[in-house]
Amino acid sequence: MRALMFLVPLALTIYAFIDCLNTSEEETKHLPKIAWVFIILLFWIVGPVVWLIAGKTRRSAAGASGPGSWQRNRRQQWVAPDDNPDFLKSLKDDRKPDAEAEEERGRHDGTNPDDKAPPAS
Predict the structure, then answer these.
(1) pLDDT surpassing 90 at residue 38
(2) What are the residues whose beta carbons fall under 8 Å from the beta carbon of 5, sequence distance 6 or more?
(3) Is 25 helix (H, G, I), strand (E, B) or coil?
(4) What membrane topology is given (predicted)?
(5) What is the domain range of residue 94?
(6) Number of domains the chain is built from
(7) How many Å apart are CA 5 and CA 11, to the nearest integer?
């Protein structure tokens, strides 16, 4: 029983500390984030409770923004590389120097890289 009286506040402190670190600066209320970290660590039992009650902007259940909806929105934002226009543009930009170098070599050889050789039969 004595161990439980030590482990519960320790677990609460660790949870509140990690929650505070993972919270963005815009979502913290009343004090800067670094101040909340010090309050959580210095005031061992009271600090984590105050953080969980008043330190963070919480979303209401009426807004229907739970973990499920957050994950659905998160999945919709992800785009596969072959569908991502920025990625495809970067590939084209990476290939331009190679194409220009090939064209330059063709000028020195006297051949045009756009010229195609007739099929050999």
Answers:
(1) yes
(2) none
(3) helix
(4) Multi-pass membrane protein
(5) 78-110
(6) 2
(7) 11
Are 47 and 98 contained in the same domain?
A: no
pLDDT digits (tens, 9 = 90+) for 85-112: 888 888 887 776 666 666 666 666 555 5
Instruction: Tell me the C-alpha distance between 16 and 55, whole Å.
Output: 10
Where do we find the tokens 């609460």? 12
User: Distance between CA 14 and CA 30 in Å, rounded?
Assistant: 21
Cβ(20)–Cβ(55) under 8 Å?
yes
Q: 0.70 cut: is pTM over it?
A: no
- Write the CB contacts of 90 (distance below 8 Å, at least 6 apart in sequence): none
For residues 101 and 13, what is the distance between their CA atoms, to the nearest angstrom? 61
Give the C-alpha separation, 12 to 38, whole Å.
Answer: 15
Cα–Cα separations (whole angstroms), residue 104 to 95, 99, 111, 112: 14, 9, 10, 9
Given a cut of 90, whether residue 84 has pLDDT beyond it is no
